[in-house]
Amino acid sequence: MENFEMIFPVGTKVLCESEMWPGKWEAGIVKAHLETRYGVSWAIRIELESDDPRLDGALVDYDYRF
To answer: Distance between CA 28 and CA 15 in Å, rounded?
Structure first.
């Protein structure tokens, strides 16, 4: 598995595709890489920066195990 912590370090600005609305992209900042209680990395947490006040500041987790 690739090391996403090196590819997308915390603080990096990224674009992420909406899982709810495929084809819709949002900008955000990587806030954390999440691990299981056994120390296995499983997701990246992104804080959205959006013009939509409902989404601005929302935290979204993307599972990268698959």
So the answer is: 6
- For 1-66, where are the E strands, in sequence order? 13-17, 25-35, 41-49, 59-63
Q: Is 24 helix (H, G, I), strand (E, B) or coil?
A: coil
Classified as helix, coil or strand, 32 is strand
pLDDT of residue 15: 95
The answer to whether residues 29 and 47 touch, using CB atoms and an 8 Å cutoff, is yes
Single-letter amino acid, residue 7: I
Q: Give the pLDDT of residue 39.
A: 87
> Is 42 within 8 Å of 63 (Cβ atoms)?
yes
Kindly report the length of the chain. 66
Regions of the chain where pLDDT drops below 50? none
**CA angle, 33 as apex, 3 and 9 as ends, to 5°?**
60
